[in-house]
Design goal:
The chain is α+β, with helices and mostly antiparallel strands and 392 residues long. The protein is built from 9 helices and 26 strands. It is globular, with a radius of gyration of 21 Å.
């Protein structure tokens, strides 16, 4: 049963990335028409230009609540969407308290910065948080699985919902997390929700029905490097399924064929994108591929993105309407690019399905979202090429 504790969401937005005064006036003008409750926090997602121009820092000084968030390459809320946009959702409540946290610089997969930040954020707080909302840096040498697993261990398995920062550049060099006036390339920012809150989560990856029929077993792997499937080098396994190589021996559109990965631990499958095939025939993937896992090769394209998103959003909307709640949505940049020239298709579909149901969507480098097993227990997992929804 979902408790009737209320978190009200107030959506504020602007397209003014250059003129700081105009942008601040637009946001504060919209907020002036609303009433804040006892506790409030602002969730911000924006094009990187809003950080470099000083808009985000100026907003932090003018707003009556703290702000946290991330850069992105596109975002949407009710009746508003685009690329060069800033969307700020104020979450406000008389019952749920929000506590902010930030790690020190993260340089590798060292637990210490996370532990220090957790201890600082939870000091003096009674009990465990009911939800952790995460904004993680996109770092080449730190896997999203590391974040999901370590935070679970540190927090005692508090549900962790969030995203890895991205931006509009091919190498994502302006991707940043945000806390107040500051933006970071290498720090993890989070919000802890304290109160008898029962958030609900919805995950949509790829359809197993549309995947290649043959399934394989991971027989050799190391972290996110998949070496063998069914005893074969991954390149040979992919060739056996009929995937074609170009004249240089490179598989065509490898990013369009993610793995649907089942850990065989009673949890639903997760998606793992392939980034590249190494000279020895191994696959570099977007997350850990444990030995013994079962996989199928899926397909991601515009039709698949819209089909899966529609199914997930319709389910989430029913739960939101049942409790007067709002939706926080992160969708992978892989889904954005899979839409081809019509890059707004998923945002358009979201607007169509959700209508007046309050929502905030942005595109993500990797998605962090709990999954529920057959035994009813949750496990925090990282996801690729996935849309995730938190109803809160």
């Amino acid at each position: 049963m979902i408790l009737s504790i209320m978190i009200k969401s107030i959506c504020l937005k602007t397209t003014e990335a250059d003129d700081v005064e105009v942008a601040v006036a637009e946001i504060t003008g919209q907020l002036a028409r609303e009433k804040l409750l006892r506790y409030s926090v602002g969730i911000i997602t924006c094009f990187a230009d809003f950080v470099s121009s000083g808009v985000v820092a100026a907003l932090s000084e003018q707003l009556p609540f703290p702000i946290v968030g991330t850069t992105t390459l596109a975002a949407a809320s009710n009746g508003f969407q685009g690329e060069i946009v800033l969307i700020l959702t104020a979450l406000t409540s008389d019952d749920v308290e929000f506590t902010l946290g930030v790690t020190g610089a993260i340089t590798d997969e060292d637990e210490a910065p996370l532990m220090v930040a957790w201890e600082a954020a939870t000091a003096g707080k009674p009990g465990k948080p009911s939800l952790m909302l995460s904004f993680a840096p996109l770092l080449l040498n730190v896997a999203a699985d590391f974040y999901a697993e370590v935070w679970s261990r540190i927090s005692g398995n508090v549900p962790n919902f969030g995203t890895l920062a991205v931006d509009h550049n091919q190498d994502y060099h302006e991707s940043q997390t945000i806390l107040g006036k500051e933006a970071f390339r290498d720090r993890y920012v989070f919000v802890l929700f304290y109160g008898s809150l029962e958030p609900e989560f919805f995950v949509g990856g790829l359809s197993e029905e549309k995947a290649f029929r043959e399934k394989g077993v991971v027989t050799s792997s190391q972290g996110n490097l998949l070496k063998e499937v069914n005893g074969l080098p991954v390149a040979d396994y992919l060739s056996s399924l009929g995937l074609e190589k170009d004249k240089n021996g490179v598989f065509k559109g490898i990013n369009s064929f993610p793995f649907i990965l089942n850990y065989n631990d009673g949890m639903p499958p997760v998606i793992r994108v392939m980034f590249a095939i190494t000279p020895d025939g191994s696959a570099v993937c977007g997350g850990k591929i444990p030995k013994g896992a079962t996989l199928a090769v899926g397909v991601i394209n515009s039709e698949e993105v819209l089909t899966i998103s529609s199914e997930v959003l319709q389910k989430a909307k029913k739960r939101a309407l049942a409790g007067g709640k709002s939706l926080l949505i992160f969708s992978c940049v892989g889904r954005y690019f899979a839409q081809g020239f019509n890059t707004t298709a998923e945002m358009d579909k979201t607007q169509e399905i959700l209508g007046d149901t309050p929502f905030h969507l942005c595109y993500s480098g990797t998605e962090l979202c709990p999954m529920t097993g057959k035994d009813g227990k949750i496990t925090n997992r990282s996801h690729n090429d996935t849309i995730i929804v938190c109803v809160v």
